[in-house]
Amino acid sequence: MGIELAGLSWNPLSDLGQLTEFPFMVQALEAGTIVATLAGAIGWFMVLRRQTFAGHPLSVIAFPGAAGATLAGLPLALGYFGACGLGALVLSVAGSGRGGHSGESAVTGTVQAVGLGLGFLFVTLYSGQLSELESLLFGTFLGITASQVQTLLWVAIAALAALAAIGRPLLFASVDDAVAGAAGVPTGALSLAFLLLLGMAVAATAEITGALLVFALLVTPAATAQQITARPAPGLMLSVGLALVVTWVGLGIAYFSPYPVGFWVTSISFGLYVAVRLLRAGLSRRNPEAPGAPA
Amino acid sequence: MLAHEFMRNAYLAGSFVALACGLVGYFVVLRSQVFAGDALSHVAFTGALAAAAAGIDIRLGVFLATIAVAMGMGLLGGRGRPDDVVIGSVFAWVLGLGALFLSIFTAGSSGEDGTAAVRVLFGSILGLSAADAWLAAAIALVAAVALLAIARPLLFGSVDPDVAGSLGLPLRAVGLGFLALLAVVSAEATQAVGALLLLGLLAAPGGAARLLTDNPWHGLTLSAALALGSMWGGLALSYAVASLPPSFAVIAIASACFALAALRSRLRSDLAENPQIDREGGL
């Protein structure tokens, strides 16, 4: 382990040098950059579409996926992406049924508890160690391999290309589903496609932050960006930028500190969100006739 | 099976916790507050590990954390129903804090205490002492009685908040009271099935009861019965199959009930109505 060698000095350049000295850290930074770009972009649509609650069971399903893959001796990435893709399909089928809003949230809550329970069962059967469970749930940056970075890169490119292709109608459908449907936009197909993309983003993010902390990159930067601007293009870029900053700073601090990367990433991104909200509240008190906030 | 003391304790605590979960869970589903229950379950985890890291009783940490956060959510969100993005953001940070306390705790203690995290996350119902079990049962019973006491205004306020408000019902107080009860029940269920799985014990029986009957009083009873049945069945199953964790068995049975109820209501609606109504329900 290279951690013993790490130490913070007064020279910021040498500290940055230290960060890139070990291949595991370089791979973690590469993976973090890819993941943050993907999560920032897809998370922005997720917050716009108010699908926060739909995203959560997906993130939780990543845990049994990865634990099951470990138990079966399959590659970890297959477990993550397979489980999240499957989960997205199940959610979109279940969500289109009847039962109204409350029925749907009972479905998502139940799916999530079953997912976590299954993951726990797999880890128990594998008789894995606590550290295994902990890194699946709360993330790690020590174990990211070069081949994992490669997979992440291709998945991210494919997902972002797909998002770019459906971006315009998706934006329309997200803002006003009924009008978009009347104008001939296939809203049902779009929402299925988006859930699949969300599944990919969640699976990629879970490899860095752990299954339980996915929201720190997926929801919080996007929500912060939408607090700052309601316009799509700058908002999307801001969301990606914030996710990148959160990931880089979080990984950097975690390298020098004894505490887990998940804690730093979530704290930084939540801190930014609170700061922006407070700032906005202060601004709107100073000039109350400023245009209203997006809710 | 009941000759073992740990099984008797598990059944004692489990029955009352399941009863309270079923009652509260029905309203959680009815009021579309599953996400709030979810956030509370994760707060329970952080509270427990914070208490463990500070060296105080884990239960105290769980109760303090869930009640404080439930009150905060109720007051911040306005009208006692918190906003999804706010919960989602708070929620990720709270879990991150939990990860921090976990690493402080595991670094500060010797190896065998490392299982505390697993106990908090996935429950420890088979490890309860007799005193623990009696205390858990008593608190759960009090919560269940309190819920039944406010059930009537709560039901009215959940189904039709506008009319209930115009009749002068104190909706905000009732909503806050309900969140407080939800917090207590979440903290209780953390001991039984663990912070990560308690949502299943809240949402699955309530969701199944909602699908099976439109009458709220029948639904409430049914939800409590389903939760109780899942707890009993799950405990028996995990006793019979040693490698099966009890919390997983409980959640698996509760979810199977929900899946069957969903299947039944879908088949019925296909028979009874035009299939095209199905397509409209997507919102």
Task: Give a structural overview.
The complex is a heterodimer of chains A (295) and B (283). Chain A has 295 residues and is mostly helical. Chain A has a domain at 19-212: ABC transporter involved in vitamin B12 uptake, BtuC (Orthogonal Bundle). In chain A, 79% of the residues lie in helices and 0% in strands. In chain B, 82% of the residues lie in helices and 0% in strands. Chain B starts with a helix and ends with a helix. Residues 275-283 of chain B have low confidence and may be disordered. At the A-B interface, helix 3, helix 5, helix 6 and helix 13 of A face helix 2, helix 4, helix 5, helix 9 and helix 11 of B.
Give the CATH architecture of chain B.
Orthogonal Bundle
| Share of β-strand residues of chain B | under 5%
Taken in chain order, the helices and strands of chain B follow as HHHHHHHHHHHH
CATH topology annotation of the domain at 19-212 in chain A: ABC transporter involved in vitamin B12 uptake, BtuC
CATH A-level architecture of the domain at 19-212 in chain A: Orthogonal Bundle
Q: What level of helicity do the residues of chain A show?
A: over 70%
Features:
heterodimer, A: 295 residues, mainly alpha, ABC transporter involved in vitamin B12 uptake, BtuC, 13 helices, disordered C terminus, B: 283 residues
Task: Provide a quick synopsis of the model.
The complex is a heterodimer of chains A (295) and B (283). In chain A, 79% of the residues lie in helices and 0% in strands.
List strands and helices in order, with pairings.
The complex is a heterodimer of chains A (295) and B (283).
Chain A: H1 12-19, H2 23-48, H3 52-72, H4 76-95, H5 100-126, H6 130-138, H7 146-175, H8 177-182, H9 187-209, H10 215-218, H11 220-228, H12 232-256, H13 261-286
Helix pairs in contact in A: 2-7, 2-9, 2-11, 2-12, 3-4, 3-5, 3-9, 4-9, 7-9, 11-12, 11-13, 12-13
Chain B: H1 5-30, H2 34-54, H3 58-77, H4 84-108, H5 115-122, H6 130-159, H7 161-166, H8 171-193, H9 198-212, H10 216-240, H11 246-272, H12 276-280
